[in-house]
Amino acid sequence: MDTVTLGDSGPVVSRIGLGLAALGRPGYINLGHAADLRGGRTVEAMERHASEVLDLALASGVRYLDAARSYGRAEEFLARWLESRGVGPSDVTVGSKWGYVYTARWRVDADRHEVKDHSLDNLRRQSRESRDLLGGHLDLYQIHSATLESGVLDDPEVLGELARLKAEGLRIGLSLSGPRQAETLDKAMGVRVDGVRLFDAVQATWNLLERSAGPALAEARSIGLGVIVKEALANGRLTARNDDPAFADARLVLEGQADRLGTSIDALALAAALAQPWADVVLSGAASAEQLRSNLAATAVSWDEQADGAIAPLVEPPEAYWSTRSRLPWN
């Protein structure tokens, strides 16, 4: 696995990281997520399942692991796995996030699975919880889904608390979501506390269907921020699981390029993200060892101009892309 420095002065990390959104809770919006949990949805069964995927990730050279307070028990699973396997803070880089509260109570049919809360009280509470669980392993602490609408980038108390955490040794980042990712990132790049730039890294959605944040991510990388790509598989829409009749023509294009390059649709999509010159880490959201093995094949794919030219017409307007994402069912 190739490695890279996360930003100009961050830790050395693997080009592919593992996000735990689909491993820490029984319900998620990825297509076919229910089929990945054949071993059961009890806490104990899911912890065993998560450990299996984490074992494979470590053995395969994955050295960036990404969690969040709202990912059910992901931080707990990760913390116990790190301890049981003797994985030290110098062996992997761990990122987590604050800003959403998990509310599903381990139910897939919950009315609401998570609630956004970018308040100072929630930051203080969740940062304590994350640090208590992950200890010295926690390196990067991120605002979860920062948006212009949430006002989090205009809250001096929250920004001051993040600056305090930074002074104590945490790197501070933000993740983005929604059709205005680029505008949010533009604002974030200008945030300074006591004359010091606050953010060390940004995590954003970029994939073959939603490329709108690309120029802003390139600018962020040019000024030294680490760039982490999430949802490179569009929550399963860029995998063989997408059997939506409305996506049939697009799937033929993707299959054609995947066949030409001797790979799968998911590895092709991840390879496209890895090929972006501003991308440091591309997250796999694998919910099974089988998926992770397929995703890791992206490192051997030679993304080229022919693939980019053939697939470029599949790009969706940001508003349409995020509208579709919002309708994906928890399963």
UniProtKB/TrEMBL annotation:
Its EC number is 1.1.1.-. It is an enzyme of class 1 (oxidoreductase). SUPFAM superfamilies: NAD(P)-linked oxidoreductase (SSF51430). This is General stress protein 69. CDD domains: AKR_unchar. It comes from Tautonia plasticadhaerens. Pfam families: Aldo_ket_red. It comes from the Bacteria. Signal peptide: none annotated. The keyword Oxidoreductase applies. The keyword Cell cycle does not apply. InterPro entries: AKR2_Oxidoreductase, NAD(P)_OxRdtase_dom_sf, NADP_OxRdtase_dom.
